[in-house]
Amino acid sequence: EMMELCLKECQLWNVITPTHIILITDKIPNALKESIEGFPYGCSMSLVALTPTTDVNNKAQAFLNSCNLKGKLYPGPVLGKDSVDRIFENIMLDNYSKFEAALWFGHQSTNVVISPSPDVSHLAGITLKPTPKTFPTTLKIHGFLPATDLHNPPYVSRHILLHSGSRSPVKITSKTPDLRVILNEGLRAKDCVAIVDLGMGWFGVVSSHLPKSERNLKKSNLVFSIIAPNAFSWLGNPNFLGLKRLVSADKQSNMPYKEAYSNSYDNKSGSGMVWIKSSTLKQNIMKVVRYAKRLPDKGSAMFLKELNKVRRSILFYGFTDMMDVLCQLLEKEKTPENSEILEGCIVQLRNELDPGKIIK
Question: What pLDDT is attached to residue 353?
């Protein structure tokens, strides 16, 4: 149960975002090692052994080594308030120290806390691309892009930019607006994202995010996503992004540049990525079910059209389990009047695997 809770919490961020687990135990159960080994992402662990015996501490250290996790053993103290406080103060200093950076846009600047703290060693472990030796403490916004142009590039990790109480690198008065507030409101109103250069081909994307749980409160956060080199290749080399007005007039007519072919990851090029969102997948399936309810009196042509469209997508994507689900849904819609039509469709769905052929 503990590992399931950890997994759900980590999935809110990203399966490859660095994760830290604090395990407090007085023994090391055998089943726990199998649960840790099943984690699909890099994580570290602080293991607190409450039983102050050499044998338990040795087993705890051996457990950490066998799980191949980055971690540290905090030997069990003689239980007491002061000793337990010291243990957790050490854990906080080792793993939860604040990472502060200066966020710059033009002449405006503000100090922010990046949470959770970015881990450069983690970046080096998940890609063959060169990585910065240290994470920069100065984040300069180089420009903005419409969120629709950026689409949804694969990010390495996501962080929240929080307010820092430390002194800003520029002079601030009571009339100076907070850069975080300006960015948050501007990005949300214009549906844009800000681009930050992290060096060596790595980029950061600052965006305004409004969690579903807080939409009624209209309380959004600034989210900082770390993007690996060449992660949004459809925009070309990000180092060459610039203002259109800086390009000579005779070349502006050709902007933005369009390739002679359609990219498979371009949502605007067709229906190749219609199932990138789970809501779209559900709408397509339910549309087939709605038309099946109208059989045989009306809607047979539309039913076959939608059924073939969904079937073709299932076969192209390789979602064989989804084909079984679709057949089960059609089985439930059988009535004495439409059973012959639906049974014929179900047989063809299960036996005909050529996406070029249509169900009749």
Answer: 78
- Which two tokens mark 111? 């100090």
Q: Which tens digit of pLDDT belongs to each residue from 132-185?
A: 778 899 999 988 988 887 777 778 888 899 988 766 555 555 666 788 889 999
Q: Which long-range contacts (CB under 8 A, 24 or more apart) does 163-170 make?
A: 163/112, 163/113, 164/98, 164/100, 164/110, 164/111, 164/112, 164/113, 166/100, 166/111, 167/111, 168/102, 168/109, 168/110, 168/111, 169/102, 169/109, 169/111, 170/107, 170/108, 170/109
Q: Are 168 and 109 in contact (CB under 8 A)?
A: yes
pLDDT tens digits along 330-341: 998 888 888 888
What DSSP letter does each residue of 12-69 carry, written as one string?
TT-TTS-EEEEEEESS--HHHHHHHHT-SS-EEEEEEE-S--HHHHHHHHHHHHHTT-
Q: If you write DSSP's letter for every residue of 266-293 in order, what string do you get?
A: -GGG-STTGGGSHHHHHHHHHHHHHHHH
Q: Give the position of tokens 């540049």.
A: 257
Q: Find, among 43, 37, 46, the residue nearest to 9 by Cα.
A: 43
- Going by C-alpha positions, the residue among 145, 311, 154, 174 that lies closest to residue 244 is 145
The pLDDT tens digits of the residues spanning 305-331 come to 888 888 888 887 777 788 888 998 999
Distance CA 157, CA 115 (A): 11
Model-wide pTM > 0.70:
no
pLDDT of residue 270: 46
How far is Cα 184 from Cα 239, in angstroms, rounded to an integer? 24
How sure is the predictor about 8, in pLDDT bands with cuts at 50, 70 and 90?
low
Handedness of CA 205, 211, 216, 220 (dihedral sign): negative
Sheet with 43-49, side-by-side order of all strands: 19-25, 43-49, 70-74
Point out which residues pair with 74 in neighbouring strands: 48
**Of residues 161, 175, 112, the one with CA closest to residue 138:** 112
Asked if residue 110 lies in contact with residue 168, where contact means CB atoms within 8 angstroms, the answer is yes
CA geometry: angle at 329 spanning 325 and 330, to 5°?
A: 120
Report the C-alpha gap between 350 and 136 in whole angstroms.
Answer: 55
pLDDT at 269 over 50: no
